[in-house]
Specification:
The complex is a heterodimer of chains A (110) and B (121).
Chain A: E1 9-12, E2 18-23, E3 34-39, E4 46-49, E5 63-68, E6 71-76, E7 85-93, E8 98-101, E9 105-109
Parallel strand pairs in A: 1-9
Antiparallel strand pairs in A: 2-6, 3-4, 3-7, 5-6, 7-8, 7-9
Chain B: E1 3-7, E2 10-12, E3 18-25, E4 33-39, E5 45-51, E6 58-60, E7 68-73, E8 78-83, E9 92-101, E10 105-111, E11 115-119
Parallel strand pairs in B: 2-11
Antiparallel strand pairs in B: 1-3, 3-8, 4-5, 4-9, 5-6, 7-8, 9-10, 9-11
The chains are: A mainly beta (110), B mainly beta (121).
Chain lengths: 110, 121
Amino acid sequence: QSVLTQPPSASGTPGQRVTISCSGSSSNIGNNYVYWYQQLPGTAPRLLIYRNNQRPSGVPDRFSGSKSGTSASLAISGLRSEDEADYYCAAWDDSLSGLAFGGGTKLTVL
Amino acid sequence: EVQLVQSGGGLVKPGGSLRLSCAASGFMFSGFSMHWVRQAPGKGLEWVSSITSSSNHIYYADSMMGRFTISRDNAKNSLYLQMNSLRAEDTAVYYCAREGFSGYEIGLDVWGQGTTVTVSS
């Protein structure tokens, strides 16, 4: 059971906007930055969002992150077939003194 | 090119040991904290351990504490994970990853290709 809670699946059609939620607690999301990672099938994860809402260079502005209290979300607008992947949220957990990952959300582009 | 190249995975019997390596190139390895993250077959990402740039702070996930040891050799631009008393549930793809820094931490921004560890008799 993951410390951060994500829905196991999400879906949308091309061009749509989808959001993926990530719920935590005061010891992780509530007190630390949230990060989002994208994992395409058979590949290593890729950093998508850092510090709640910042995009590394090379990440399209279709991807955006937000945080409120002990929850965070990733939004993907203008959905494309190549966005079909697993998405993970992460945050440092002060109680565990470790990095906590969400269980992952499998995004399907219909 | 900034990259992390992993080696050392394989098949090991329960109770056995294995040492994973992660060779860094294209950046000043000694200036970055490093992490190990694993992924069991068909499962999500699980953080394993992290080590700061000068090895003065080391952290482990509870389930690995006492069995796994993270270390680094900045002179060799290399990160290691010594895994002892391996169990079937340690079977996973293990990734090394760099904790990016640009005035502040920016997440795990460079990942190795992953190496498979299989614990089975």
